[in-house]
Design brief:
The chain is of the alpha/beta class. The protein has seven helices and ten strands. It has one domain: 3-Layer(aba) Sandwich (Rossmann fold). A hairpin with a 6-residue loop joins strand 1 and strand 2. Bound molecules: adenosine-5'-diphosphate and magnesium ion.
């Protein structure tokens, strides 16, 4: 199994001088290709912090993080952006959709900003709308959709670049139980049928059960 994410003795401290808050203390974990890993831990235990470090959204840390074989600490900002764009899809608790763009324009936005033509993306867009069950909603505005549907748009947007891994931070944290099941079933299906690698942060055992393995954070260290 190829390793997509490798976290080696990563430590992270916020604050200065007298108000230091060490959130991660030599944390180690990995995610192999085709895994669906759930990162769990109490509120404030550092789950989002670790996910953001893995995603290259925060570059200040001690230790080593390798993504798709590249040590992200040794990359220039521009190289890291490129690695992120080509290999990672992000999904957050709040869907971060652009409210005055319809479903398909939201899904296409990151790719078109990065210079892709809509015509090149048409087939991928059609496939992704179908996988995420949004074909009939492709012209709908986000405000007319349920929370679960909006999160599916965010997942579709993350999938469009065909990333090696999806990083999701409490993707169902804002959803009712029916929509939560819908999103977890979509992740499980993407993982099983498409071999998509997924790392999700969750504090729900029910959500973690959809994954193939669980890693816990406690006192800044990772277990499992
Ligand atoms: N940007 C930041 N500046 C200062 N402290 C932060 C920042 N982000 C997170 N923290 C602190 O790090 C700890 C872990 O936060 P977080 O990773 O968000 O936890 P979790 O996602 O597990 O709930 C908390 O004590 C939080 O206050
Ligand atoms: Mg968090």
């Amino acid at each position: 199994m190829n390793t997509i994410i490798e976290v080696n003795n990563v430590s992270k401290t916020f604050g200065k001088n007298t108000s230091l808050n060490q959130v991660l203390d030599n944390a180690c974990m990995y995610v192999g290709e085709g895994e669906f890993v759930s990162l769990m831990g109490a509120s404030g235990s550092g789950k989002s912090t670790l996910l953001y470090l893995i995603g290259g959204l925060d570059r200040e840390f001690d230790g080593k993080i390798t993504l798709c074989g590249k040590d992200i600490g040794s990359l220039k900002d521009r190289e890291l952006s490129k690695l992120r764009l080509q290999n990672m899809g992000f999904v957050f608790q709040f869907y971060n959709l652009v409210m005055n763009l319809n479903v398909e324009d939201n899904i296409l936005l990151p790719a078109t900003i990065n210079g892709k033509k809509r015509s090149e993306l048409k087939k991928d867009l059609d496939d992704i709308l179908s996988i995420t069950g949004l074909t009939e909603k492709r012209k709908a505005m986000p405000s007319t959709l349920s929370g679960g549907q909006q999160q599916r748009v965010a997942i579709a947007r993350a999938l469009l670049g065909n990333p090696a891994v999806i990083l999701a931070d409490e993707p169902t944290g804002n959803l009712d139980s029916k929509s939560t099941r819908e999103i977890m079933e979509l992740f499980a299906r993407l993982n099983k049928e498409k071999g998509m690698t997924i790392l999700q942060v969750t504090h729900s055992d029910e959500c973690a059960a959809y994954g193939t393995r669980t890693v816990r954070i406690d006192s800044g260290k990772t277990v499992g």
